[in-house]
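Q: How do we represent a protein-ligand complex in a form that can be generated cell by cell?
A: Start from the inputs.
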Amino acid sequence: MKQQVIDTAKALVADDKGLLAMDESNPTCNRRFAKFGIPQTVDARRAWRELIVTTPGLSKAISGAILYDETIREQKKDGIPFVRALNDAGIIPGIKVDAGAKDLAGHPGEKITEGLDELRERLAEYFQTGARFAKWRAVIAVGDGLPSPSCIEANAHALARYAALCQEAGLVPVVEPEVLMDGGHSLARCCEITETVLRAVFEQLYAQRVRLEGLILKANMVLPGLTCPTQESVDQVADATVGCLLRAVPAAVPGIAFLSGGQTGELASARLNAMNVRFKSRLPWPVAFSFARAIQQPAMGIWQGQQANVAAAQRALLHRAICNRAARRGEYTAAMELPSAGRGEHTRALGIPSPGQTKFAVSAA
Ligand code: 13P
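Then emit the C-alpha cells for the protein with 1,3-dihydroxyacetonephosphate bound:
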C-alpha cells in the first residue's frame, strides 16, 4: 500500500475537521427533497450539491466530502467540475462505491451490501477522476433474533474485500458498518451488537490484509433504539460509545468518524462533544464526524430549491459544520445554537466570510 493512502487517512481527521457525506443515492436524495417539496430532478440534485461545494469557508471545518457517482461526474454552472471545486477549496473528494443494501437471501429483515463485482475497475476510474477516498456502508438491523451471525459475517467480509481493493487502488477505505437506530432496543443491546459487529469487521480486515493505518472507521454512536422508552443522557451515550470502541477498535486505526444515523444536528454535535470533553486526551484515535443529515438537513429546509435562499442555506450548512468542529475540540456549547449573533461570532473566529457577503454562482433547478 502506498504511503499516500496513510497520509490521506491522517489528513481526513486532522485539525479537528470531519467529513461531509453528500453521497445520497438518487432515491435517497429524492426522498429527502420530497420532505421539503423540492423537485426530484437531476437539476435540483446538481444545484443542491453545487450549493454545498461552493459554501465559503467550508474547508475550515470539513476535510473531505463524499460524493455519489452522479455528482462526481458533474460540474458547477460555470463548467468547473465539482471535484476541482472541492480540491481548490482544500477539501478532499471521496466517493461512495457500494451498490446499496439488498435483502439477504434466507434472512428476512436483514440486508447485505452489494457492489464488489467490477469494483477494481470502478475504483481505478474514480481515482483517475480525482477521488482519494471511498465509502462502503453495511447496515445491521436490530430486532427479535437480529442481527444473525451470518448477516454480520457476510457484511464484514464484503467490507474487508472492498477495503483491500481501495488500498490497492490508492484510495482510503471508509469502512462503515452501521448498526441501525430503528427499533425499541436498549442502549446496552446496541452496545453489545456494535461491539460484536466491530470485532467481526476487524477480524475480516485482518484476514484480507487491510492495513489499519490506511483506513477510517465510520461507526454508529452507541444509542438506545428510537422507540426505546429509556433515552440515556448525552454523557451516558458518550461513555457507552467510547467504552465500546475502546474494546473493539485497534489503536492503529487513524480515526473514527461517526455517522449521524437520524439524530438531530444538535444532538449529534452534543454527543460528539461529550466524548471529546470526557475522553479526548486518553483515546488512541481521534473521534470525528462523517455526517450527512446532521449537517445538511437544516440547510436543505431553508433552501427549498430556491436560488434566493442559497446564501441563507449555506450559512446554515456552515453553522452545523462549525458546531461539529467545535465538538471535536470539546468546545461545542448550546449557546452556539442561539440565533445569528452567536453564529456570526464563531464563523468570524475562523476567519470565514459570511455567505451572502460573497459572490455565489449557484442556481436552483
Ligand atoms: P447520516 O449522517 O445521515 O447517517 O449519513 C451518514 C452516511 O453517510 C451514511 O452512509
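The pocket of 1,3-dihydroxyacetonephosphate is lined by residues 21, 137, 176, 259-261, 291-294 (CB under 6 Å). The radius of gyration is 19 Å.
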